[in-house]
Structures are given as structure tokens and as C-alpha cells.
Write a structure and sequence with these properties.
Keywords: Plasmid. This is Site-specific DNA-cytosine methylase. This protein folds into two domains: about 140 residues, no CATH class; about 110 residues, no CATH class. Strand 3 and strand 4 form a beta hairpin. About 10% of the residues have low confidence. The longest helix has 25 residues. It has eleven helices and five strands, in the order ααααααααβββββααα. A five-stranded antiparallel sheet has the order 4-3-2-1-5, with helices on one face.
Length: about 325
Amino acid sequence: MNKPPSRRKKTTPAASNDSTLPNDLVEEDISPQENPATATINVTAVEVPELTEQEISDRLHFERKVERAFFEAGKALTELRDRRLYRSTHKTFEEYCRDRFGHSRQKSNYLIAAADVYENLTTICCQNSGIEDLTTNGSQILPTSEGQVRPMTKLEPQEQWQVWQAAVQEADGKVPTGRVVKDVIERILERTKAPNPYHLGEVCQIIVKDNPELRGKGGCWCIVSHVGEFTCTVAMWDREYTMRIDHLKSLNYLESECQQMQEISDRISRLWEKGKLEAPTEAVLKCLGELKRPYLTEFEEKLLGFIEQEYGIVD
């Protein structure tokens, strides 16, 4: 029987000064039995250069711009609304917001209210820190979205500051979510028994929750007619209701808008007090009670005026 040929390992000549091995020698140095999992891989470390002072300043500047985006939007909407800069193309601010920005008037009101809270926080922070411009202070945690400050819109400026600091602390020094801010407010209210946040004449939205008496009224507007310690009496399109404050949500209307809604409410109440209303009339009043805006359209005004005339109600 012939003997199988033996495999000999080639060696590199000792006298060779060439650091590059021939291809056949390189192949022979890698053992076919070597386990790839145990192979050693050399990784070259890449050094990341530190930020320069200018880059650090630029980063902070841009971060503050991102944080202030919702604030700038709220302040701009305030100018557009208060100066009626939409009047050349739209009759109402609501129509303008919907057509130009694709969101409701309520969304605009949220942004406007949030901008006020943000301004209060930065003003108090500057006063406490002794600085004039927070864009140069990277250590101060500020809100970055409207939803984070929405729960604080009903609080006084100093209360907003205290709540925000407590929420930042609860979030381990990071920007807290709106849920964290709301939890902080609820704990403070429970601890201090803060007064009812609503006031006479305020326009609110009904939140049904667990109150069967309010079934079918979810989303309807109402006007606060009495403020208790933990409840409110509100006037709706059909009658008055007394409910806990957690069944209400403020619509953040301006004082003038609340007065407009009060006038509409009074007109509806006078009709309702007539009694024995026909079904179409009740349907119209219910529809007006579900308005998502603080005014009547031209058609709604004519329709309500016609009904008032039919039932003998004259101003």
C-alpha cells in the first residue's frame, strides 16, 4: 500500500528582510482548524475631536431654537389673532388657522397659552439666575413642547415655576412629560387643597367620564354659573348641571369670547324656558350647544333669530 504524502510546513528564510510574505506562505500560516470565534481582530481606534468653544456655543444656540419652536409659534399666533392680520383673506381666525396651518382654533389657543407659560418660566428663571439671556445657559431645563406646559396654563406664574421645577426633579433632571407635570399638579392640589381653578363666566367643555347624568353631553360647551370648593354649576343648552371639576375642561377662550358665548347661552336659555318646543327647534338648540367655536356663523345667526321670532322672543 502506498504511503500518503506528508504535508510539510514551509518556513520563511531567516535571511530575508522583506516584511511582505509571498501569497503561498500567507495561506499556509492560517490553519484550517482555527476556530473563527476565537480569532483576534485588531480594531483601529478613531479619535473623536472635542467640540471647540464656538461649536459648544452653536450647539446650545440651536438646541434653544428647537426648544423655543412652540413658543415662537404661540407668540406669532397671538399677533395674527390680536391684530387680525387674517382679515384680508378670512372672516374668522378659526377659518384662517384651519386653511393656513391645518389645525383648529383650539390648537392655536393651546399654543398661545403655552407661549405665555414658557415666557413666565424664562422670566422667573432669569430673575432667579441673574442672567438676561437663557440661550447662554445650558444648565436650565426648559419645556420643549406645548403638551408639557398645558396642565400649567391655569396656574399663576410663580406656581408654574414651582410645578415645573418639581417636575424636572421628578424626571431626574430631564425634560418632564405632560403626564409628569399633571401628576405634580394633582399632588399639590391634594396636599394644599387649592381652590377651584374655574371662574364665573368661563367657557368649558364637558367631559362625561363616570357621570351618567352627562351622557350624550360629551364635548358640549357650557358656561360656569357657580363655583364651589370642588364642584361647578354650569349652564348648558338645555339646563343647568352641577358636576365635579374633573368633568370640565377649559376652552381657554378670551374674556371677549366668553362674553359672546354668554350671550348665545342666554338666547338659548330664553327659548328653552318657553317649553313645549318643537323637535326641529330642539335639534337646532342642541346643535348650537355643541359648537366648537365662540361665535355663530351668519347662517346660524339667521336661524336662531328666526326661531326667536317664531316663539315671540324679541330683544
